[in-house]
Amino acid sequence: YGQQFQSRSDTARSVEYINIDLKELIPAFIHNTKEEIKRLKDAVDQNDWPTIERMGHSIKGSSYGYGFKCMGQIGRRIQAAARETHGRDRLPELISELVDYIENVQVVYE
Predict the structure, then answer these.
(1) How far, in Å, CA of 75 to CA of 98, rounded?
(2) What is the pTM of this model?
(3) Are 37 and 99 in contact (CB under 8 A)?
């Protein structure tokens, strides 16, 4: 069975203030995150909870490392939802939130 993951266009655009020294790395980071989201969706379709938890942890850590605080919080919530049996039904919504964020985030370098 397949989960539905859709971007919500009504979400306000997030603004992240990123260190200018990271400017050359951000396009690859965004691209890699989009690829990771595809793998995350596949893991949800397969009910692969350990992989989802690990990926949430990875998204959390890399996002905070680059300065994407909101995405780090989403990653933390994905990790927690995968860990908790009763929280797993929230995963499609959290992944949609992540997709919406990555498609609409505005990066301001400082």
Answers:
(1) 8
(2) 0.87
(3) yes
Residue 22 burial (CB < 10 Å; 0-12/13-18/19+)?
Answer: middle
Q: How many residues does the chain have?
A: 110
Q: Which helix (H) or strand (E) holds 107?
A: strand 106-109
> What are residue 105's phi and psi, to 5 degrees?
-65, 140
What gap in Å lies between CA 90 and CA 82, rounded to an integer?
Answer: 9
Residue 93: Cβ-neighbour burial (10 angstroms; 0-12, 13-18, 19+): middle
Query: What's the token pair of residue 43?
Result: 């893991």
Q: Which of 8, 11, 81, 97 is nearest to 47 (CA)?
A: 81
Decide: 63 and 80 in contact? Cβ < 8 Å: no
Report in angstroms the alpha-carbon separations of 6 from 41, 50, 83, 87.
11, 23, 23, 19
Give 25-77 pLDDT, tens digit per residue. 999 999 999 999 999 999 999 999 999 999 999 999 999 999 999 999 999 99
